[in-house]
Specification:
The chain is α/β, with parallel strands linked by helices. It has a single domain (about 30-285), classed as Vaccinia Virus protein VP39 (Rossmann fold). It has helices spanning about 35-45, 50-55, 70-80, 95-105, 105-110, 115-125, 145-150, 180-190, 205-210, 245-255, 270-280, 280-285; strands at about 1-5, 5-10, 15-20, 25, 60-65, 85-90, 125-130, 135-140, 160-165, 195-200, 215-220, 230-235. It has a five-stranded mixed beta sheet, covered by helices on one side. β11 (about 215-220) and β12 form a beta hairpin. α1 packs across α3 (about 70-80) and α8 (about 180-190) packs across α9 (about 205-210). The radius of gyration is 18 Å and the shape is globular. It starts with a strand and ends with a helix. It binds S-adenosylmethionine. S-adenosylmethionine (SAM) binds near residues 28, 94 and 166.
Length: about 290
Amino acid sequence: MSRGSEYELVQLANGSYSLRSVEEDETFHPVIGPVAEAEALYVRQLKLVERLRTHTGEFVIWDVGLGAAANVLTALRCSRSVPGKLLVLSFDHTLEPLRFALKHAEPLRYFHHYERAVEDLLDSGIARFRNGPQEVEWRYLDGDFPTLVADPSSATWPKPDAIFFDAFSPAKNPEMWTQPLFASLHALLDPARPCALPTYSRSTLLRVSLLLAGFFVGAGHATGEKEETTIAANSLALIDEPLDRHWLAKARRSTSAEPLWEPVYTQARMSPSTWERLLAHPQFSGSL
Ligand SMILES: C[S@@+](CC[C@H](N)C(=O)[O-])C[C@H]1O[C@@H](n2cnc3c(N)ncnc32)[C@H](O)[C@@H]1O
């Protein structure tokens, strides 16, 4: 185990390495490791390589929770044979995990070829480079994500085709999992630009929050760490297994289904008004 000020390098049972935040007491990718999780949850689930191949114009990724950049660097490595333009906006309120991870690039193993890009991002908040035949621009947006999203300037951010949503768990990091945050995120999307947002949690309260925010929501791929995850999108076509009325019935019985309306972690059964709003969602109301 290697210690930094606020982060530690930890070796997982499968031999790979990941970071642990000492302050939050959370390991970034605790079971299968950063690269395997990024491949399963984001690259394969989003069909990123196929989408990049058929995309016209710039493909835009919002990377929420840059952390140690495993998700972005894995996406870059997996798509490095695909020509095109990629713009990545990475959000976080600290660059410390990335600085720490770069110092431990060798055991982490996913930095190779991208050290210079990461240094540029750390030094100036922007990196422009070629990833094989691909042109990449990678920008860092610093600050509390809900505050940035609520600022009117968020309307000028290039609209995303995909969102990697990778905050700490709702119990530790409730401000990143509120219904108002997901509603604001949905409002920032371009309805004419299909965009999907996978995330590792399959919790009912998250799924209800995403639905009430206006997303279509489906069961997401297993990652080797979780038997099921969640994928939300502004287009039903991007979801292979939409949640159905069977899920709805289970959600109604769940003791943890009411969204977090404020950044405080609580568990509660669904309120009558939440239930009414869910029933009226086009995914369940038959009004598609
Ligand atoms: C699980 S880690 C992300 C791991 C990262 N995606 C990777 O591939 O290495 C969660 C990240 O969310 C960031 N985060 C938590 N709360 C935040 C907030 N309110 N605003 C912005 N970033 C936040 C943390 O600083 C941390 O880097």
